[in-house]
C-alpha cells in the first residue's frame, strides 16, 4: 500500500472508541516483567511495531514472552540479574523508547549487546542517553562520536556508580534510562530535569516494589536487589492515540464521540488542558486507577475553538500531540502560537518542518515554522491535496484528521500508522 485516500467526513463523527493500549506503558510492562522472576499477565498490550520490538528484544535477552492473543501476553523473566547475552544483534526497529530504555538496563550488565534499527532510528540522536550512562561507568560505542546506531554496549570496567544528573532536556526516555541503570549502581542515582517529564517509569517501578523519591523536578532511585513482579498489569488506552479523536470530535460539526479507557496520567494530559483552553467541549468521566496509572472515559463534542498559546513548561505533557493540536489550531478562530517545541526536530522526522510543509498544502499559508515552534493562522480555507507522511505515524494520522475535517487528503506512505495504531484508518471509516 503506497497511497491511501482519506475522503472528507460528510457529517459529524459519532460512536464509541476503545482506545488501544498506551505505547509507553506497553513498552515498560514487558521490559519490567522480564526483570522479575514470576509470570506477569499483561492485558490491553499495544500490538504495534514499536512494542513488538520491545517484546522481541526481551526474548533475545532470555525472557519468556508468550502471546495469548494480539493484546494479551504472559512474560516471565529470570530475575533482576538474570538477563542473558543475546546470540545476535538486537533490532529496535523504529522504537526510540526501546533503544533508550534498554541502554539503561543493559549498560550495567556483564555482557556485550549490539543494537541496530530502521533507517529513521539510525538518524536519531542517542548521545543524550549515552552521555549520562558513560558518566556512571558504561562503555558504549556508536557511530558519529557515540551518537548514533549501530550501538554496542560492552561490560563496564569496575563498578557502576550512582550520580546526580542535571538533564538539559525534560525527557522521560533520558530520565528512565538513567534511573534504570541506577538500579544496578553503587549509591543513589538522581535525575534533575528542567521540567517534570512523564512518569510512567516511576509508577511502574512502584508496581514492582521499587520506591523512587520525588522532590521538585528531581527523582532519586536507590540500588535495587529484586523486582517483585505483580501478577497482572492492565495497560490503559493511549492518550496519544485518543488525541486524534479528541481533535476530530472537537472540529468536525455534529460530532459526539465517547473514548473508552483512556490513560489520564497527569504528566500526559497536556492536550486536554490545551483543547479546553481553546474552548473544546470535553468531559472526563468514570475516573479510576489500574497498576498505578489513572484511566477514564472521555466524551468530546463539536464546539467552536479559539486560538491559544503555550510553551516549554507544558511541552513534556503533550510533545507527541503537537501535530494533531496543529490540526485543531487550523480550525480555531485567530492565531495559535507554540514555542519551546524544538524537541520535535529530532523525532521520527523533523516534525516542525513536516507540519509546516505538509499542512500548508491543505491550508496554504496557514502555518509558519519557527526554530522551536509554530505560528498557526486559524480559519483559512482548507483545500483537498496530496501530502507526504515521512513514514511518521503521528504526521500520517494528523493529516488524515485534517483531510477528514476538510476537503479530503491523499496520504503518500500511510502505512506507518502501524507503528502505534494499526486500526486507525479502519476506526476512522467506521465512525463516518
TrEMBL record:
Gene that produces this protein: aroA
Primary localization: cytoplasm
Subunit structure: Monomer.
Enzyme Commission number(s) of this protein: 2.5.1.19
GO cellular component: cytoplasm
Record: active site: 320 (proton acceptor)
Pfam families: EPSP_synthase
Binding site for phosphoenolpyruvate: 23, 96, 124, 173, 351, 394
Family affiliation: Belongs to the EPSP synthase family.
Function: Catalyzes the transfer of the enolpyruvyl moiety of phosphoenolpyruvate (PEP) to the 5-hydroxyl of shikimate-3-phosphate (S3P) to produce enolpyruvyl shikimate-3-phosphate and inorganic phosphate.
GO biological process, one term: amino acid biosynthetic process
Source organism per UniProt: Selenomonas caprae
Name this polypeptide is given: 3-phosphoshikimate 1-carboxyvinyltransferase
Residues reported in the UniProt entry to bind 3-phosphoshikimate: 23-24, 28, 171, 173, 320, 347
